[in-house]
Design a protein that fits this description.
This protein is an alpha+beta fold. It contains 9 helices and 24 strands. The strands form 4 sheets. A 10-stranded antiparallel sheet has the order 1-2-3-4-5-8-7-6-9-10, with helices on both faces.
Length: 421
Amino acid sequence: MKFAIKAIVAAFCLIATLSTSDARGPYGTINVGNWKGGAYTHDQSGAFTHCAAGAQYASGIYFAVTIDNKAGWSLGFAHDGWAFANGQAFPIVLTFDGQTPFNVHGVPLSGKLLQVPMPDNSALIAQFRKAKTMTAFTQGQLFQFKLDQTAQLLPALANCVATVKKGGVAAAGEFAVAPKQVAAAGPAQPNAAPPKGRSVNQTGTGFVVSASGHVVTNQHVINGCVGDILGNLTGEAPLKLRLVSSDETNDLALLQAPSAFKEVATIRGKAIHSGDTVVAIGYPFHGLLSSDFTVTTGIVSSLSGIMNDTRFLQISAAVQPGNSGGPLLDTSGTIAGMVAAKLNALKVARATGNIPENINFAIKTGALRDFLDNSVVPYQTAVEAKAELKTSDIARNARAFTLLISCTATEQSASAKKSSE
């Protein structure tokens, strides 16, 4: 990127002071998940100005949270492709976990940097503190952010300000607050057992990728599983699968059966194109709609996902909860991707007032092949284009390598999985 991450981070140092002078830092460290940051001082006077932490997203957006020395909070967004005009404030709709949206105004601090003030006593920051996801809708574009570990990040930033104001930058260290200190305020109950959710059946889809019995699926399909993970082909007894490796960032998981399967999926060697026909196969709402897999067709609508995430394809083939981890096939029956998610229509409707239709996503084969290479799993690749098949033939062939993935999970884990689909 031309607009280097270091330059973006330096630009965010200006958010608290809104000056044209550079800030110095970071002093100390804030390491909470993907959030990185620390304390900053004014370049000329050396006075402490603020604490900040940010995270880089695959779309190229850098997202940061700051708190100044007067306890003023703000959000910051930067992207190399943006070109804001000075004084060009414009409305933004922020929605947290699909709740009531907030209408705010973004203030450009530079051509590529945008600030959203977040008063400490506002309902906005109250929602931000506990949210797991956030969407931002502005100028006809919808951006989505995961807010993992925000409950730990905000106390770390507050601790940073309190520590530096008391002891100066010489007192700077690791500002992250221990998890037990992040717990919501309330009377201590040292003998209280943690609440247990009731057990539920969690299902998804997977497909065979190696002659050694390796199966791939989405990481969120097996996340939170307690006990055995089972996989079974249509009409056959379930097999116990062991978890070999997983990649939460790219939402991929590798499982292995105790014995080999008769058929193995072949992964497309060349990238698919916009407009190409695709077939999605999986087990949506297993046991409610059907015990057999379902087949839907569509096209590749876009070669990138939400916020231009190039790891994903956007597809029009209809998918539902349970399709996750299933094969996305081209017209020759080779793997063109892995079905990953369905855009949450209710959340988008709350944010935009419009209900989206047929907006679904699949992980590209490039990310899948990299995952298998890193896991040292041999797989079959189709370099040359094969003859086109009827959809019925594609489905018949896929039946031999597409599995229903199921496990027992707590109700909380299943709810988290549902929210990601």
